[in-house]
Amino acid sequence: MIQLTSIRLREIRLPLREPFRISSGTMVDRRIALLELTAADGTTTWSECVADDMPNYTAETIDTAWLAITRWIAPRVLGRSFEAPGDVHAVLEADFRGHLMAKASVEMGMWGIAATQAGISLARFIGGTQATIPVGISLGIQASPAHLVEKVRAALSQGYRKIKLKIMPGRDVEYVRAVREAFPDAPLMADANNAYSLDDPAALLAMDDMHLMMFEQPLAWEDIVRHASLQTLLKTPICLDESITSLDRAQDMVTLDAGRLINIKPGRVGGLAESIAIHDFCEANGVPVWCGGMLESGIGRAYNVALASLSNFQKPGDLSPSARYWARDVVTPEWTMSADGMLTVPFDVPGIGVTVDVDRIDNLTVRVETVAH
Ligand code: OSB
Ligand code: MG
Prior knowledge:
The chain is an alpha/beta fold. It has 13 helices and 16 strands. Helices cover 34% and strands 23% of the residues. It has a seven-stranded parallel beta sheet. Strands 1, 2, 3, 4 and 16 form a five-stranded antiparallel beta sheet that branches. Helix 1 crosses helix 3 and helix 5 packs across helix 6. The mean pLDDT is 98.
């Protein structure tokens, strides 16, 4: 049984080691909301809200999430007894639309509490089976094709198992071609973050013979139907990211053949229960999934890693080591990757698998609010 007595929210500012540019915006300093959850039996854990400063990925931002957590989400869960963390999602969805990243931060924290109470790792608690996970890197849009080629060279030499190139109109065919020519056999993919339209698929068609593993989310953030039309024009499989916000949307994708893979981010779908449901549905339908990232701190990353240990996570995840993002992470040990691009799941560490560096978080904190029962 899980019953939360308080949620302490903090905003930290964590500067990225280098700016991260996607088609819809550039991230420089991450504004991150961290949650410290306390249960009635005294168990505590941490979780993270992945919403960022601007509404350019989905509609949520850290400020809308802060409001949603303090005003509507915390009051629904605090003091209420849940049989299991899998029951939280339905309670947060009842007559309460959207705010999925905000909901996910609380829902995931309750999984973290439950695993801690059970004395086992979150990965084990959710039924994970993979002890090591292949890691991919997501490379932001660069100043020139030559710059991108050098980034890819460095990433391959570090051992990454998948290289995701961010693209946008004007920074696409030439860039991807240069990388493909330099590395004929590299496992490459491209992520457009909604930058293309079905009216003008020329660039996507031009990249269709570059042996990409997939095109991630080429069209609009809520679209399914146009992706289905686009998939009929392309040999390269489409992978949906932004459009998959629930199990229903995953079912729509499969029904309409709007994509052949899903990038699961627990923050985007309202938490771990919905992520697991999507994972299970995809597994039953022969659709591979992989774990995406949102430039999380090591706390958010812990939940992604546990999720990615489930059996149908069949492609490398966007689970780069801490040092790729931050001068120093907020957890110990930091997340690392072996020379052959593998991450070890902390299967034998109870709870979320890392220790939170509270002193460091205190130093980075710019805002605090506690909601208690
Ligand atoms: O589309 O997957 C994306 C980061 C911020 C917003 C959207 C995306 C991303 C990434 C980063 O690709 C993946 C990572 O955390 O390394
Ligand atoms: Mg994406």
